[in-house]
Amino acid sequence: LSYRKPTRKSETTFIHNTTIRTFDSRSTGTTSLDMETLLKASQTLSKEIYLESLLQKMLRILIENAGADKGILFLEDHGQWFIQGEIYADGREKVLHALLLADAKELVSGKAVNYVLNSKKLFVVNSAKEDSRIEEEKRTTFKSLLCLPIINQNKLIGLLYLENSLIEGAFSSERVSLLSALASQIAISIENAVLYENLEAKVAERTDSLAKSKIEIEKQHNLLETVLKDLQDSINYAKRIQSAILPRTNALKNAISDHFVFYMPRDVVSGDFYWTTEINIRSIETEQANSLSGKLVHKKQIFVVADCTGHGVPGAFMSMIGINLLNQVVTEKQIHQPNLILWAVDSALRVLLKQNDAGSQDGMDMALVTIDKESKVLEFAGAKRPLIYFKDGEITEIKGIAKSIGGHEREIAKFEKHTISTENTTFYLFSDGYPDQIGGEEHKKFLIRNFRTLLTQIHQLPMEEQKQILEQSLEEWIGKGRQIDDILVAGFRFE
After folding, report:
1. pLDDT category, 410, cuts 50, 70, 90?
2. Of 1, 130, 148, 248, which cross-links 160 as Cys (Cβ 3.0–4.6 Å)?
3. What is each CA distance from 57 to 6, 46, 94, 106, 312, in whole angstroms?
C-alpha cells in the first residue's frame, strides 16, 4: 500500500491481489478486541515510524478486530480533511487515496463525521433505522456505525469511521472503550510518523545545504528533539497513571506504621508493583464472637509485592492488569485467604490473556501476605517469590511455589499458605531485581545469599535507616554499570 500525500484534487489508487484476514461481521461478541489484542496492537503501532506502513497496519488491525466490515481513515492537512485510507473486511479491494471529505458524501454519514469534527467526541449508532440523528440522511446502508476522534495533545488530527452493514449493536460499550484506548496510541503514532516523515523529506531535500549550513542542521536537530519530546511526554503520562494507582504513602503508613518501601524502576515506568488494602471479614463465628463487644467486623490488611513480565511500557501494562485483578478478587469477591487470592488471580489472568488457548504467555511473580493485627497473625503465599522474616535474631525464609501467576504452564497451581506470629517480628517481601543486579569488581549478580546477609546486618535498625542502607549498598554495587531490572523491596515490623 502506498501512502499518497493529500492534494486538492481527488485521487484514488486501488491495490489488488492483497490478502486480508477476514472476520465474521455477524458476531456481536467482544472477543475480537480484548486486552491482549489491545496490548499487541499498541506495541505494534508504537514501533512503526513510517507513515505508509503505520496506516497499513492500523487499518488491518481495525478491520480485523473492531467489529466492522468497512473502515475509513480521515486525516487533516492544512485545514482540510481528506480520506487517507479505506478498507473492507471481505478483501475484495483495499484503497488508499486522497479524497476530500466534501466529495465523499456517498461513502460516509455526513452527520456523524460533522458531529465528531465539531465536538471532538465519538458518535455511535447502534441501530440506523431507529436513530433519529441520522433519519434524514438518504444513505443508510449500514446498521451500526462508530465515528471515533483521533486526538493528540487536545488537537483533533484524524477520524476513524467504522460501519457494520449486517448487524445492529456491533459496537458495544466495551469494544468502544478499547477502541478509544487504542485511538490514543494511534494518535501518538500518526503524529510521530508524520513528524518523522517530514524530517526524512527535509533531510533528503537539503543534504547538500546541510553540509554547508549550520543553521539548517540546528533546525533539523530541533525537529528531532520535538519528536523525542513527544515520545517522552507519552511515557511520562503513562508514569503518572501508574503512580496514581500505586498505594499512597499515607495509606501505607496507616496500614502498617513501621515499614519502608524501596521502589526503583529501571525505566520511567515499571513492571514491579506493590498493592495493599484493608478488608472487613464477616463470618458466623466472627459476628457471634464480636457481638458482645459491639464490633461488627474482623479486619485484615493485605499487602502484595509483584514482578511482572517485561520492563518499561509492556511491564507497566501488565502491572495495571495485576492491580485490577487484585481489586476484583479481594475487594469485589471478598476472597481473603492468601493462597486462594493467588489462585483466583492466576485463573482470571489466564482467561483474560487466553493462555489456555496458546495466547499470551505473560505473567507475574507475586508474594502476598494477610495481616491480622488483632490476633497478631500473618499468613503468606507466594508464586516464585519468598518471604524472609526475623524473630529473636533468627532468619527464616519461606519460598513460594515454583510457578508464576499466568505464564506458559498449563497445570492449575496449588498455592500454599503459611502462618506466622507477628509478635516482635520483621518481615521482608521483594522482587528479584535486587539479588539479580549485576555489579561489583567481577561484574556478577549480587545473589540472594548476599541479600540475606545484608538484611541480617540491618534488620534491627529503624525502617527508614534500613531503606537508606539498601539504596546506598545498591548504588555502590552497581558503580558505573547500569540497572538491569526493576527493583522493589518492602519491609515491615511488628512489636
Report:
1. low
2. 148
3. 19, 11, 13, 26, 23
In whole angstroms, what is the distance from residue 430 CA to residue 460 CA? 18
CA distances from 267 to 79, 306, 439, 477, 485 (A): 38, 17, 18, 19, 9
Q: For residues 13 and 329, give the distance between their C-alpha atoms in angstroms, rounded to a whole number.
A: 52
pLDDT digits (tens, 9 = 90+) for 28-44: 443 455 667 667 777 77
Burial class (CB in 10 A: 0-12, 13-18, 19+), 464: exposed
Per-residue pLDDT tens for 417-474?
999 999 999 999 999 999 999 999 999 999 999 999 999 999 999 999 999 999 999 9
pLDDT tens by residue, 61-85: 777 777 888 888 888 887 888 887 7
* The residue to which cell 515506568 is assigned: 269
**pLDDT at position 9 over 70:** no
The whole-number pLDDT of residue 364 equals 94
Taking a C-beta distance cutoff of 8 angstroms, is the pair 437, 483 a contact? yes
Residue 14 has pLDDT above 70, yes or no: no
CA 415, 420, 422, 428 torsion-angle sign: negative
Q: Cell numbers 555489579 label which residue?
A: 439
Measure Cα distances from 92 to 17, 65, 87 in Å. 8, 18, 9
Question: Which of 228, 2, 190 shows the shortest CA–CA distance to 95?
Answer: 2
Do the beta carbons of residue 159 and residue 116 sit within 8 Å?
yes
